[in-house]
Design goal:
single chain; alpha/beta; 621 residues
Length: 621
């Protein structure tokens, strides 16, 4: 079982599984209690019909033997009804079973869908409690989330089907055991004892294989990544251009062979023990038949009793073996549940104030970083150290530095996607952690370097910046005009209603057109702080400079933060912060920094020389 080593004693494994079964029943009950009760009722009826069918078959044979004169004194109930009645009754029992089976299967399928929907809804609710990014960027938590997501659909239905099958099996086995009590009180007990070794072997088999699969989740994610690189459209160009298919196929084959090879060894080790245990169970059932034949030869029982008791012994053993198989599947079926519970029960990743303040409207003093330091969870190396700067109302501040200097991390702190590990960030003199988080973020708009391209309509792509205004076409068009995206939208077949992206058969846009829609998404939001976090990094220097200049002109009077690793694109900012090694190394206007002749000036001239040489080369060619 997950979180339980393969060498854990059987009793502890059983207790852990029992706990998870109880939790599973709660999940099923929460999904739809009426359906759960209906399935249990149908399961009980199915269980009762199996021994009833054996009893009716015995009565038919005894009645035939009596009518032919082979026996003189059958059971009184047998001669109470004619042979035709018993045959009709047997057909009715058989027909009832045939009617119940599809109904039970339908209810199980519906319950599986309800359970899947219920668990998925709980996952979504849990994810909405995580207001930051720490959960999504934690590798161990990512494994739990992957298990929950990957198993929620198949596991939801499997839990219901296996649970219903286990209920039917238990009820039916009990019915056959009651029938066999009339033959001899010890026979049901002996059959159960003879089947226990095989059940135990099946349990160990299921536990060890599921434990192996559980710990292989990180490898499973790597396996999925190698597969997706070869089977998804985004990396297809690189795969074909650079001939990467053999490389990723080799990685896939290596991980697959390593993970499945260990699993095969576990299976082969247990196969012989399971075969020996199965032989013991079969011997026990054969012994019951020999005992019956001897009793019939002594005149103690009829031929109909051979059908009744022999069939009951066989069916009891089969039901016990089926129950053992279901139990062996429990570790695999329930394997995702501990991960699911850890995800569902994970506390919020950002502390919320008991009495949150509304965000100031308008912002009067601005934003201040006071000796801010930050390290990502699980990583002792700080990304930011002793960062101090401010953004005043109406001011445009640029943050420049090499890739990996910590610029995007600083934005995450500003948006309170993380909290600083040291220091604090103030808004109008009050720590960000004191504000209502939703209200705070409503005052902020940002376009990240890896902005999302939503497979939605053009209007929805813009309107998601302010969801409540997504149906206001005039507002959306104004935002598109500010971003320079209106002409692109007007060329689309249905304008704002045009489906975008290839996944759902929509219109694909160029990278620059997607970038303009993302910019419009920021403009549609009536916020006091706008952040441009290198969304144009893929564009050339001239195109990026035009975007930043347009953004600066359209946001005059608002607090804005421009981020880039290209120094020439942000020279229009009121102040420029040069970030390196997690610290603000230089600060001032472009002219001031150039006059100081520090690192910023040196790097600016170096980049300018490179761009000039590139432009001259293009002219000569």
């Amino acid at each position: 079982m997950p979180n339980v080593d393969a060498s854990t004693p059987f009793t502890r494994q059983f207790r852990e599984t029992s706990r998870l079964v109880v939790l599973t029943i709660r999940l099923v009950w929460r999904a739809h209690p009426c359906l759960m009760l209906s399935i249990l009722l149908l399961s009980l009826l199915q269980a009762l019909l199996a021994p009833l069918q054996l009893a009716v078959s015995k009565a038919v044979l005894d009645r035939v033997a009596f009518d032919l004169g082979f026996v003189s004194a059958p059971a009184p109930l047998v001669i109470l009804f004619p042979l035709v009645t018993w045959i009709v009754l047997g057909a009715a029992v058989l027909m009832a079973g045939q009617l119940i089976q599809p109904s039970a299967a339908t209810f199980q399928a519906i319950m599986g869908d309800r359970l899947t929907g219920s668990i998925t809804e709980q996952l979504i609710i849990a994810a909405n409690r995580w207001r930051g990014l720490a959960r999504f960027e934690d590798p161990s938590f990512a494994d739990d989330l992957e298990r929950a997501r990957r198993h929620v659909a198949q596991g939801g239905l499997a839990l219901m089907v296996d649970g219903a099958q286990a209920a039917v099996t238990c009820f039916t086995a009990l019915g056959f055991a009651l029938v066999l009590l009339a033959l001899h009180p010890l026979i049901p007990l002996l059959l159960v004892l003879a089947t226990l070794p095989q059940t135990a072997r099946q349990w160990v088999y299921g536990h060890r294989t599921s434990s192996h699969l559980y710990v292989q989740t990180p490898n499973a994610r790597r396996l999925q990544y190698s597969r997706d690189v070869l089977l998804t459209p985004e990396p297809a160009k690189d795969v074909r251009l650079y001939g990467l298919a053999p490389f990723f196929q080799a990685k896939y084959d290596f991980i697959f062979t390593r993970t499945t090879g260990e699993l095969h060894r576990v299976r082969l080790q247990l196969a012989l023990l399971m075969a020996l245990a199965s032989t013991l169970a079969a011997t026990a059932t054969g012994s019951v038949y020999l005992y019956l034949v001897w009793q019939i030869a002594q005149g103690q029982y009829s031929v109909g009793d051979l059908v009744l008791y022999g069939g009951a012994a066989t069916m009891l053993q089969l039901r016990l073996l089926t129950l053992g198989f279901i139990l062996s599947e429990l570790p695999r079926t329930l394997g995702f549940l501990p991960s699911l519970l850890r995800v569902l029960e994970a506390p919020p990743d950002l502390p919320l104030p008991p009495q949150p303040r509304p965000a100031p409207r308008p912002i009067r003093q601005g934003i201040v970083f006071e000796h801010v330091a930050f390290s990502y969870p699980g990583n002792a190396v700080p990304v930011l150290q002793d960062v101090c700067f401010s953004i005043r109302p109406g001011e445009c501040v640029a943050l420049v530095g090499h890739n990996g200097a910590g610029k995007t991390t600083l934005v995450k702190l500003l948006l309170r996607l993380y909290d600083p590990t040291a220091g604090r960030i103030l808004l109008d003199g009050i720590d960000l952690r004191e504000y209502d988080l939703d209200d705070l973020r409503r005052q902020m708009g940002v376009i990240f370097q890896d902005f999302v391209r939503y497979e939605l309509t053009a209007g929805e792509n813009i309107g998601l910046g302010q969801v409540e205004a997504r149906n206001d076409c005039g507002h959306l068009e104004q935002a598109a005009a500010k971003a320079g995206a209106l002409e692109c939208i007007q060329r689309l077949p249905q304008g704002l209603d045009t489906q975008l992206g290839r996944e759902f058969g929509g219109r694909e846009l160029s990278g620059g057109e997607w970038q303009k829609l993302a910019l419009a998404r920021a403009f549609v939001r009536e916020c006091q702080l706008l952040v441009l976090d290198e969304p144009t990094a893929a564009l050339d220097v001239q195109a990026e400079h035009e975007v930043y200049t347009r953004f600066h002109e359209l946001t005059r009077g608002r607090m804005t933060l421009l981020i880039s690793h290209r120094f020439s694109t942000v020279r229009m900012a009121d102040r420029i912060l040069y970030l390196a090694d997690g610290r603000i190394q230089e600060e001032g206007s472009h002219a001031d920094l150039m006059a100081c002749g520090g690192t910023y000036a040196r790097l600016y001239r170096l980049q300018a020389a490179q761009y000039l040489a590139s432009a001259q080369g293009e002219q000569r060619s």
